[in-house]
Amino acid sequence: MSAWEEIRGLIDRRDADAVAARIAGLDEEARKEVAGRLPGYLKTLRGRRESWERLDDHAEVLRAAGAGVLPGAAAVATWLNRRDFTTRWSPAYGGHRADPDDPRGPAGGVAGRPGGTARAAAPDGG
């Protein structure tokens, strides 16, 4: 089973913790594979819904996946803030704000990345 098949299965199960943990163990080649396939899978998920429906039930797991595999801080920031992932429960709508220090959230996925991406993506620039 490829890294992408494993991650896709975890996305389908909506298990953000398992996605973050699995991605932390991927090598650079596997991260690139997942990063290359993730945007297409987002389109697949959107295609299973009505045009007005958001991806509320997949937002957390997709954020975790993208934070862990996309190249560079700008790509990660763009992915995390996609309109598809803005749910009615997000802070923009008065919902719960995630704890940025919780390693299970998207910040945990970025923190486990090799190189300077985690520092570059940090709110204070590292």
What distinguishing features does this structure have?
single chain, 126 residues, mainly alpha, 7 helices, 55% helix, globular
- Structural class of the secondary structure composition? mainly alpha
State the separation between the terminal residues, measured CA to CA: 36 Å
Instruction: Return the average pLDDT rounded to an integer.
Output: 79
* Number of strand elements: 0
Indicate the percent of residues in helices.
40-55%
Q: Please give the domain count.
A: 1
Beta-strand content: under 5%
Shape: globular
The number of helical runs is 7
- Biggest β-sheet strands, sense, barrel: none
Write the layout of secondary structure elements.
Elements: H1 3-12, H2 16-24, H3 28-47, H4 59-69, H5 73-80, H6 106-111, H7 117-121
Task: Report on this structure.
With 126 residues, the protein is mainly alpha-helical. It has one domain (3-121). Helices cover 55% and strands 0% of the residues. The chain contains seven helices and no strands. It has helices at residues 3-12, 16-24, 28-47, 59-69, 73-80, 106-111, 117-121. The protein is globular. The N and C termini lie far apart (36 Å). The relative contact order is 0.15.
Concise overview:
The protein is an all-alpha fold and 126 residues long. The chain is built from seven helices and no strands. Helix 1 packs across helix 3 (28-47).
